Amino acid sequence: MTRLGTRGSPLALAQASAMAARLRGLGADVEIVPIRTEGDRLLEARLAALGGKGLFVKEIEDALCDGAIDAAVHSLKDLPAGVPAGLALAAFPERGDPRDVLVTRTGARFEDLAPGAVIGTSSPRRRAIVLSLRPDLVVEPMRGNVDTRLRKLEGGAWDGVVLAAAGLQRLGLAPAHARPLDPDVFVPAVGQGILAVEVRAADRATRSLVERLDHPPTRACALAERAYLGRLGASCNTPMAAHASFRGDRLGMTALVASEDGRTVLRGGDSGAPADAELVGLRLAESLLERGAAGVTALRV
Questions:
Q1: Which of 78, 97, 100, 203 is catalytic?
Q2: Which of 111, 128, 222, 268 is the 20 to 30 Å CA partner of 282?
Q3: What is the DSSP string of 178-201?
Q4: Active site residue 78
């Protein structure tokens, strides 16, 4: 029996169920083990104030290290750049839609929103991009599961919300007025749309099983984006982004670093061979640092 750990949110359970189904298709017996994390216990607080990345991960990784579970399914964008000693990211299944989506009650495009319209988002990255493009809008923080956010939108709490396309798709949700946002403008979070399956590095049997879920093009994108994240030393409360994708046989990458008020935005891009994915991410991070990224965001360098 392979015990698969995950958060207990509807989205996390849907993601774990999809991975469990694939493992069962490979002949494994799988049990899903929901684990409550600090981030889940503090859903009404703002992520930046709570410490950002790792809030939805630590208890799950502790259970993995302790042997209470055999593998864990994470949204890659929840993971810090460093993996704890003794653990390994054994698989990055094929990436879902990495884009952000604007959902409104009226179907308005982002550029057509009325001045003063209120946009809800839990992400400093999304806040920074929205305000950099439309400083006339009001951005308010929000927490809660995806369905909760959509209900609040319908109830008039906001004029629009910005959500991850992959999350909507994995939950089987298709809001009537959802508009995907250009990923070259609304650069996605590092790892957005990617799942990571984590195992104990020394558990050869589980690792061998899980590695069969790996999608090499997605792995290349994940490695590039995580190398960028690691070089910047950034966390969830730092408005930064990076998105790698294949353009023919080349790996292309766009990135962004911004002040949370959106007044300062640095954008950049790079490309390279898929085998050099981490180098592409590091090189792009270095180019933004040379242009003053550390000064914009007070990152550790």
A1: 78
A2: 128
A3: EEE--TTTSPPPTTTT-EEEEEET
A4: yes
